[in-house]
Amino acid sequence: MERSSSPYGLLARFRGPEPLLTAARALRDAGFKNWDTHTPFPVHGMDDAMGLKPSRVPLFVLVLGLGGAAAGMLLQWWVSVRAYPLTISGKPFFSWPAFVPIMFEVGVLGGATGAVLGFLGLSKLPRHHHELFSSAAFEHVTDDGFFVSIEASDPQFDADVTPEMLRRLGAVDVETVMTEEST
Amino acid sequence: MTAAHQHPELDKDIVRKHDSPMRSYMVLAIGVAALLLGWLFGRQAPGSWLTAYLVGFVYALTLALGGLFFTLLHHACRASWAVSVRRLAEAAGATLPLFLPLFVPIALGYRRIYAWTNPQNANPAMQELLAHKAPYLNGPWFLTRSVIYLLIWAWMGWWFWRRSVGEDDTPDPAVARRLRTISAPALVVFALTINFAAIDWIMSLAPSWFSTMVGVYFFAGIAPAGFALVAVPAVILRRRGVLSGAVTDEHLHDLGKMLFAWIVFWGYIAFSQFMLIWYANIPEETKWYATRLNGTWLDVTVALAFAHFILPFFFLLSRKTKRNGVTLAAAAIWMLLAHLLDVFWLIAPSTPDGAGGPIGLALTVLGFAAIFFGAFALAARRAALVPLGDPRLQESLEFETV
């Protein structure tokens, strides 16, 4: 088994949230696509500064929530009307008011499952490793580090020009992160 | 700087300057005229007229109570986001003293619509029940309680408005602290009074019926009405430029989220009360729903479920409809009308004569709505439209929903 090494991208460290916001706006306006910012706490206005589109997680929640509710009602209808029709205190077999709480609960279950799985799927999680973890400086991201990472796969990426651009935007430190792939 | 990061500049002169109150007085006059006209229309059938009057009274009163609840809630949890729209809620609460004189016709004529006042007309079983309930359900004690609720609300509405207005020119953090300290016990008193008011004014219309949830149901109508009541003028005044420095998309978003949450709460409470009674199937409890689930009342019940829960739920689900002024105001106006339907549905089916013809009912309800909104606008004109002296105002202006 051979190991080949290629650049994953650039990791640039900034002094704080404000310089990071300025840099994010500049990168957004320069048309970068495969990049991200990493901060120890949520920075207000970062979504806009990065030009992020609204999350698609709510769509998963809506579809699975409604689907769960429908499945919950269908199950009870099938059980009470088709499979095991029992007369309970003289009520009709399809006593829908009694089924609503379970319909609601299954709907919540579906919606919550949609939120968790949709979030994990869209974030490509879980994963064992990420290329950025090979950077020692990146450990500061949970403490006092404010980072921008740009992937080499970005169409705008240029190994010669992009590091200069990041420095011009106020990066105090720019390093190249390598990726290791077994071939 | 992107749009979301530009904090609005609050022009303190604009929020203080008011145009002539002439139109508010006119709305108030139209309200009084409509109320009188409704009486001329309905005096041949005093029972129906009084039912319509009670519908209008409870409707307008619950709007004002919604404003009071908005104020109390945000003081109690020290919510900074709501500061820039809180004055609107305070002004709505400040109209509460008005409901003491408006209660007079009910105090004079309640015997016509509350069946427990005439036990001699009831069947023997009912007579026995009413004799058992008489220590609580008797005329003098009913009127005393009603006046106590109205006095407490009048004092709370006026006090929380007055104190906040007094802070405008002389900002004092101690006032904000005082308002916060008083708001917590005030919320407890508010909860108890609206609970008993719901029992007295609504539940006792059907004296054999009982539901331990009727107070919560009443509250579940008040809370969304309060948030809708703040959202509508916030959007209108923002579009006119008066509150453009104070109300941002972020405030609309939060108003929309809270309105949505209370709509869901209403759906939950309304269904829970119905399901528990339907499931247990005890005659004296189900009778109340049987009235509403048969004949024409079934249509009203289904319309209420759609108007007050299902349609607004799906409409306000999206982030976009909550952040857009036009869609949020449309949903809020819709909820104010749905709340009227809710009050009508609670009261009219349980009264002996019903609410009478549509014209008399419409005039009376219109009269109450116009009196309330006229008084609301007048109270809002008496002071700045934003609590300028609140120490958390700047925090509210800079607020962002994450």
Shape of chain B: globular
Q: How much is the average pLDDT of chain B? A: 94
Question: Structural class per helix/strand content of chain B?
Answer: mainly alpha
H/E element order of chain B:
HHHHHHHHHHHHHHHHH
Terminal CA distance of chain B reads 18 Å
Quick structural gist:
The complex is a heterodimer of chains A (183) and B (402). With 183 residues, chain A is of the alpha+beta class.
Describe this structure in words.
The complex is a heterodimer of chains A (183) and B (402). Chain A has helices at residues 17-29, 46-50, 57-83, 96-122, 161-168, and strands spanning 3-14, 35-38, 146-151, 173-182. Chain A is of the alpha+beta class and 183 residues long. Chain A has 2 domains: 3-54 and 131-182, Alpha-Beta Plaits; 57-122, no CATH class. A 4-stranded antiparallel sheet of chain A has the order 2-3-1-4. In chain A, helix 3 (57-83) packs antiparallel against helix 4. Chain A is elongated, with a radius of gyration of 25 Å. The termini of chain A are close together. The mean pLDDT of chain A is 93. Chain B is an all-alpha fold. The two termini of chain B are 18 Å apart. In chain B, 72% of the residues lie in helices and 0% in strands. Chain B is globular. Chain B contains 17 helices and no strands. Chain B has one domain (61-398). The A-B interface holds A 21, 25, 42, 44-45, 48-49, 54, 58, 62, 89, 97-98, 100-101 and B 2-5, 271, 274-275, 278-279, 281, 317, 319, 400, 402.
